[in-house]
Write a structure and sequence with these properties.
Length: 223
């Protein structure tokens, strides 16, 4: 049974969401405060954290950063803060998904399971291409022995290429893969920006990319 930690300061949401998720087969514990959440994580194992941005004590962004620094646990934001800045900020600090309130409970349960599958699938795997190493257990990326900093969406994009290595990925397919994580804010222009940023970090010559190759008019691939 997957164990979820719900960090939410609205009592009615905690009550209703806990009842629903328990009916879906999850074990749910909850708190409304940042420090209590960290104490609970230290005392007992959890498989995933559901996190609101607005908390009685602290805030969801700082809590997400603390969790990602100290634990190998997926974090899903469930919050009413649906503006683009909040979504991008949450993903850039390592959140695995971002779901806006109000939400459909069954969609939330489905997306929780998707994040859990991704998390487990990637554990213990080291991926390599032309001196680029991706350690999915540690969530690190390095090039020729030097660690690189990638945002959460850049990292997810890179994993998408590695998970479909040798396969031509159209822009539409890439957008579909990334939608689960960032919703409608990943559009065609955003994808162009993230591919450019990713190449600037991982390629020896971003103007002549050898890792993420462009197949003109069709899409991209990693060989």
């Amino acid at each position: 049974m997957d164990r979820l930690l719900l960090v939410e300061d609205d009592g009615s949401i905690v009550k209703n969401l806990t009842a629903f998720l328990c009916s879906e087969g999850f074990l749910v514990k909850s708190t409304a405060e940042q420090q209590k959440a960290l104490a609970m994580l230290e005392r007992e194992p959890f498989d995933l954290v559901l996190l609101d941005i607005s908390l009685k004590e602290g805030n969801g962004f700082s809590l997400c950063s603390a969790i990602k620094h100290d634990y190998d646990i997926p974090v899903v934001f469930v919050t009413a803060s649906a503006d683009e800045y909040s979504v991008v900020a949450g993903l850039d600090m390592g959140a695995d998904d971002y779901i806006s309130k109000p939400f459909r409970p069954r969609e939330l349960a489905s997306r929780i399971r998707t994040v859990l599958r991704r998390s487990r699938k990637g554990r213990g795997t080291v991926l390599e291409a032309q001196g680029l190493l991706v350690d999915t257990a540690k969530g690190t990326v390095s090039k020729n022995g030097r660690e690189l900093y990638l945002s959460a969406l850049e990292y997810r994009l890179l994993l998408t290429f590695f998970n479909h290595r040798g396969t031509l990925l159209s822009r539409t397919r890439l957008l579909e893969e990334l939608w689960d994580m960032a919703g409608e804010f990943v559009n065609d222009n955003t994808l162009t920006v993230y591919i450019k940023r990713l190449r600037e970090k991982i390629e020896d010559d971003p103007q002549n990319p050898q890792i993420i190759r462009t197949v003109r008019g069709l899409g991209y691939r990693i060989d």
